[in-house]
Design brief:
This protein is 23% helix and 24% strand. The chain contains 7 helices and 13 strands. The strands form 3 sheets. Strands 3-4-7-6-8-12 form a 6-stranded mixed β-sheet. Strands 1-13-5-2 form a 4-stranded mixed β-sheet, covered by helices on one side.
Amino acid sequence: MSLPADWIVPQWAAPATVRAVCTTRAGGVSVAPFDSLNLGDHVGDDPAAVATNRLELQQAIAARPVFLQQVHGTAVAILDAGTPDATIADASVTATPGVACTIMVADCLPVLLTNRQGTRVGAAHAGWRGLAGEGGRGVLETVFQSFWHDPSVERSQTATKKRADDMLAWLGPCIGPDAFEVGAEVCEAFCMADRDAEGFFRAIGGGKYLADLPGIARHRLLKLGVTAIYGNDGSGDWCTVGNPHRYFSHRRDAVKRGGSGRLAACVWLKP
């Protein structure tokens, strides 16, 4: 697998059967404001450029990335070789080698998942709406439940704990805790269901808060029992807003530059 040097290869304890990568702006043929490896076909970029960029990704990873139609929800798609692009979901799971669970982001948090045996992989689009979900059940909770999608798999409390112990998670780049300004409604969406979430919101006056998106995701994973969590720790190097030469950012560029491209985080089983 030959990748551009600037792309991010997760540093996690995944077994050799699992491959993962997160793209950056490096590569591709798109022109400003989508320069240059924009993988989103819904942002106003030239469709031919997006198709070329997606082919570049597919050739680089030697697997087929399945691009979802993400709607900031909690639905999970179970992928196989025949799953079409634009399947409506905000997370995906597969046990099929050569099929890449793929999440597009430009400030939202991509979360990649695998088990220690390297027999399944998954990915989730964790923007604040999907992460919050309803009643404390968001996209991370639904993808965790769907990860073992075999109906014969035991679902007892003991079995659930074992599966949580068995899971690895990697958090990719997203809008950082010093840049993610939100209103009170976002704080309430998390804190009404979980008072412990208050620690991830810093009041800055005028009914506004700075929210720690990767911190919330880690918190939600830990509540599920997942402790092997890697990647984004909330530091500046992971912030999409603060690193314009490396990352796309909708919040930074949509108004200032007239649009923003999309990064892609992918995880797949080696064919």
